[in-house]
Amino acid sequence: MRAFRLRAAEKAFAVYWGSMATDKTFYLETFGCQMNAHDSEKVIGTLEQQGYRQVESEEEAGLILYNTCSIRDKAEQKVFNRLNDYKKLHKQGKRFGVLGCVAQQEGEKIFERAPYVSLVSGSASYRKLPEMLTRLEAGEGRITGLDDRQTDETFETEFTARQNQYRGYITIIEGCDKFCSYCVVPYTRGKERSRTSTSVLHEARRIADLGYTEIQLLGQNVNSYRDPEGKMSFAELLAAVGEVAGIRRVRFTTSHPRDFTRDIVDAIDRVPTLCDHVHLPVQSGSARILKAMAREYSPEWYLERVAWIKASRRQISISTDIIVGFPGETEDDFIQTMDLLAEVEYDCVFAFKYSARPNTPALVMIDSIPEAETAKRLQALLDRQREIQRVNYSKQIGEIIEVMVEGTNPARGQIAGRSSQNKPVNFTSPHPIAPAPGSYLRVMITGAYPNSLVGESV
């Protein structure tokens, strides 16, 4: 009898460990932009379709994945620091994978830097993930998916696992053909390749059917979109997505000034569901620096597009990106950027110190700016922009605006949301139950800070 019980116990033990082996779990952390965040949604959907289950921490996972960003050196180093922090888990049989831009940029050198990594895949190769996962499960130790930048394929999948509660992302164009002298994106994301307008609209309707009311169209240069079917321009596609039944808000990012056309502003004016916000990176206010950056437009060209936006019937908010301390930037060049800041009066500025990136022409440019000077200029720009935003935001005190709820701040007893102009709004409500993320409320603006509005629901 005792032998029978032992054999039964051994059998149960074997069944338990067998079930653990087939319980394929993964942890995925995303670094970087909204396109990376949406890529991760597609990666998660693909993994789940292959029988994997997402968990909340590295310790719980059998497969640990980092979807990476290499737009700045700091972002890249953060990934390698994370890998180093958790390399001890490799001894427990866990596998590591590096995805995204750092994977495409560094390639097989990642195996040398982090020998415990088993999978390296750039974003253009995600469509091959099922095949790579099969090889990983078979015991292969070094698997790469590194398509060159000439691929014509986009990463479309029916298995997107949408993680955002209130906003559905759609990538309409991948890659970049602009080759700005400081930017690594063309080397990591490949050439520009657009999806058909038919597939974009099909996905927009599917998102609306899932109950989403806000869609954000994505692309490294979203307005460089060229419909392979030849049916629609970017502005026409934007309007068509805005007319999908059930959709209340449509956003798009990021626009490039060289491809920003007047019909985009006309579409925003004409279609109420298109959000009254344009993100239009300028990078510098100096013609000399813009030329060195290979941006292929002048400050005058850029300001003409700003004038189109400001002439709109709607109050369209404008935000931008600026790089400070680009090689050769003189004090006069910086003053020109500050002058442009004052002329445009942006509602938001994302400003960064220049970060040298591998393979880019700017890497070998002379006349680098001392770190202390770059930091000083960046702080001066941020201080000036803070004052501009303080004035801009205070102009909305007394207005009633529509806010989409994104969450709550229990510590302050406030609800957090965002206006159509993409401005954060923190407000109170007389109702005891907080509104669900994705719901819309009318809010009276009662106060303003440089980076947010304050109000009460009405």
TrEMBL record:
Family to which the UniProt record says this protein belongs: Belongs to the methylthiotransferase family. MiaB subfamily.
Entry keyword set: 4Fe-4S, Cytoplasm, Iron, Iron-sulfur, Metal-binding, S-adenosyl-L-methionine, Transferase, tRNA processing
List of residues binding [4Fe-4S] cluster 1: 33, 69, 101
Coarse class of the protein's main subcellular location: cytoplasm
PANTHER family the record matches: CDK5 REGULATORY SUBUNIT-ASSOCIATED PROTEIN 1 (PTHR43020), MITOCHONDRIAL TRNA METHYLTHIOTRANSFERASE CDK5RAP1 (PTHR43020:SF2)
Reactions that this protein is recorded to catalyse: N(6)-dimethylallyladenosine(37) in tRNA + (sulfur carrier)-SH + AH2 + 2 S-adenosyl-L-methionine = 2-methylsulfanyl-N(6)-dimethylallyladenosine(37) in tRNA + (sulfur carrier)-H + 5'-deoxyadenosine + L-methionine + A + S-adenosyl-L-homocysteine + 2 H(+)
Summary of subunit composition and partner proteins: Monomer.
Chain's role: Catalyzes the methylthiolation of N6-(dimethylallyl)adenosine (i(6)A), leading to the formation of 2-methylthio-N6-(dimethylallyl)adenosine (ms(2)i(6)A) at position 37 in tRNAs that read codons beginning with uridine.
Protein name: tRNA-2-methylthio-N(6)-dimethylallyladenosine synthase
Signal sequence range: none
Top EC class of this enzyme: transferase
Binding site for [4Fe-4S] cluster 2: 176, 180, 183
E.C. designation(s): 2.8.4.3
SMART domains reported in the protein's UniProt record: Elp3
A Pfam family hit: UPF0004
Segments forming domain MTTase N-terminal: 24-138
Cofactor note: Binds 2 [4Fe-4S] clusters. One cluster is coordinated with 3 cysteines and an exchangeable S-adenosyl-L-methionine.
CDD domains, sorted: Radical_SAM
tRNA processing keyword on record: yes
Cofactor requirements of the protein: [4Fe-4S] cluster
SUPFAM superfamilies with a match to the protein in the record: Radical SAM enzymes
Domain Radical SAM core: 162-392
Molecular functions (GO terms): 4 iron, 4 sulfur cluster binding; metal ion binding; tRNA-2-methylthio-N(6)-dimethylallyladenosine(37) synthase activity
Organism: Candidatus Sulfuritelmatomonas gaucii
Subcellular location: Cytoplasm
Cellular component terms (Gene Ontology): cytosol
Residues of the TRAM domain: 394-458
